[in-house]
UniProtKB/TrEMBL annotation:
PANTHER family: BLR7761 PROTEIN, YJGH FAMILY PROTEIN. SUPFAM superfamilies: YjgF-like. It holds the Pfam family Ribonuc_L-PSP. The lineage of its organism: Bacteria, Pseudomonadati, Pseudomonadota, Alphaproteobacteria, Rhodobacterales. InterPro entries: RutC-like_sf, YjgF/YER057c/UK114. This is RidA family protein.
Length: 127
């Protein structure tokens, strides 16, 4: 049996809450809900589009470290405090997944920091 591997991206929330960015287990990669927070500076962009772009970059890095890409994502969940912020992100989301769109759900809910406008969680299958 392949051991479980945990991937951290240096988020200040990871040790505070007790989670990691991604877990690789049984041929799957489970990426935690990811917001658009710059882990090096703690800065959170104001615009939802900028937060979305940053969250996607963080997720892409975790997927790459796990050994896969956005093309391997089979499930994505989007959590937004305001559903009106979802449509401005669609071009970036469509661009990230390209010809390999995953199953998806959008949920309207509060996030841990009121400055966060989008959180993205994905599950991918290792190639």
């Amino acid at each position: 049996m392949t051991p479980i591997r945990r991937i951290s991206t240096g988020s200040a929330w990871e040790p505070r809450i007790g989670y990691c960015r991604a877990v690789v287990a049984g041929g799957w990669v489970h990426v935690s809900g990811t917001t658009g927070t710059d882990h090096a500076t703690g800065e959170i962009p104001e615009r939802v589009e900028d937060q979305c772009a940053l969250a996607l970059r963080i997720i892409e890095g975790a997927l790459r470290e796990a050994g896969c890409t956005f093309a391997d994502v089979v499930r994505v969940r989007y959590i937004l405090p305001d559903r009106a912020d979802f449509a401005p992100c669609w071009p970036q989301l469509a661009g990230a997944f390209g010809a390999h769109p995953p199953a998806a759900t959008m949920i309207e809910a509060g996030l841990i920091d009121p400055r966060h406008r989008i959180e993205i969680e994905v599950d991918a299958r290792l190639p």
